Amino acid sequence: MKLIDGKAIATQIKEEIKAEVAAILDADMRGPHLAAILVGDDPASQTYVASKEKASREVGMTSSIYKFSDKVAEKELLEVIAFLNGDPEIDGFIVQLPLPKHIDVDKVICSIDPSKDIDGFHPENVGRLASGMEGFLPATPAGIVELLRRCDIETEGKHCVVLGRSNIVGTPMALLMSRKANPGNATVTLCHSKTANLKEICRSADILIAAIGQQEFVTAEMVKEGAVVIDVGIHRVPSKETKSGYRIVGDVAFDEVSEKCSFITPVPGGVGAMTIVSLLLNTLKAYKGKISTV
Ligand code: NDP
Fold first, then answer.
1. Active site residue 290
2. For residue range 68-117, what is the model confidence (pLDDT) as tens digits?
3. Closest CA to 70 of 46, 89, 106
4. What distances in angstroms separate CA 15 from CA 19, 58, 248, one per listed residue?
5. pTM higher than 0.90, yes or no?
6. How confident is the model at residue 293, as a pLDDT?
7. Partner of 34 for a Cys bridge, out of 30, 57, 122, 283, CB 3.0 to 4.6 A?
8. Of 193, 200, 217, which is best to mutate to test ligand 1, by the most ligand atoms within 8 angstroms of its C-beta?
9. What is the per-residue pLDDT across 135-175, written as a single tens digit (0 to 9) for each?
């Protein structure tokens, strides 16, 4: 079994981005600028946005956070989005999800300029992905594709089973694996909570991508000998062995599954490490798109 070291690959890509940003700044040009809108005080969202800001700084990009209370009116949020859409100094931005219940998430996503939609959630970018056209890919699936590419994992002609059909991970992941590209060209089965014979389907997977949000759901008996296993899940489990009082596990029962597969991503240090890097790559792409039209 080979461990897919997402952390090491993410560090390497960050160095590549850093060199590119340094070259831009050395040429006395404005550097890439990424912004994030954060609503409320959900700890996971705060941590995630803070990590994005830290990562942008590390690679030399400018980063801004627009913070709002969870009482913010939808109208106010839409006005800020309109402001960011029109600000030529902002190359791309994200609206951190989830949003409070009184805000229409679809309306918010649809109000983002697709050319600044570095999360790849706007229907135009989703449509571009489905049509095989150039656009912004959602960060987590894009990060997984990059891991497969950099680990030279063959996907063509393979049976790829994706567990979970969320708009953020499962559905775009299935589209990416089935598109005419490398990595891609796989035969994809997309599974969800209503899928019958889930275990059998998983056992037939050459590549199994678990994004169902169920702690250690994928066990050894669900995995074919020699399969590639990608674990997207993130769960905090109480632990007396760590300082923090918890440890992080995924959607895959790592210890037993790792005995059986050819490649596996650890949690933490696998897929999660790549998500922010994908966002930085999208920011650079948004920046270059704009620069080339100036
Ligand atoms: P969602 O909760 O939005 O979607 C879960 C999907 O799994 C749904 O499609 C659901 O089916 C399906 N599902 C749930 N239970 C079962 C089951 N028992 N059998 C079959 N299918 C099931 O999750 P996300 O896609 O947002 O996230 C998935 C996991 O990935 C979470 O643990 C999350 O924390 C993690 N995550 C990690 C990221 C990273 O950077 N590493 C980024 C984003 C998420 P149905 O549609 O029928 O309800």
1. no
2. 999 999 999 999 999 999 999 999 999 999 999 999 999 999 999 999 99
3. 46
4. 6, 9, 26
5. yes
6. 43
7. 283
8. 193
9. 999 999 999 999 999 999 999 999 999 999 999 999 999 99
Is 52 catalytic? The answer is yes
- b (16+ CB within 10 A) / e for 173-184: bbbbbbbeeebb
CB under 8 Å to 8, separation ≥6 — which residues?
none
Partners of 3 in beta bridges = 264
Please report where in the chains the tokens 């918010």 appear, as a residue: 108
Average pLDDT, the chain: 96
Which residues contact residue 26 at a Cβ distance below 8 angstroms, ignoring those fewer than 6 apart? none
Please state whether beta strands 62-68 and 2-3 pair in parallel, antiparallel, or not at all (unpaired): unpaired
Q: Which amino acid is at 178?
A: S
Look at the block and give the residue holding tokens 């340094």.
Answer: 22
Pairwise CA distance, residues 59 & 14, whole Å: 6
Residue nearest (by alpha carbon) to ligand 1 atom 39: 272
88 token code pair? 């030529």
Residue whose CA is at the smallest distance from ligand 1 atom 16 = 193
Of residues 5, 14, 91, 96, which has the active-site annotation? Answer: 96
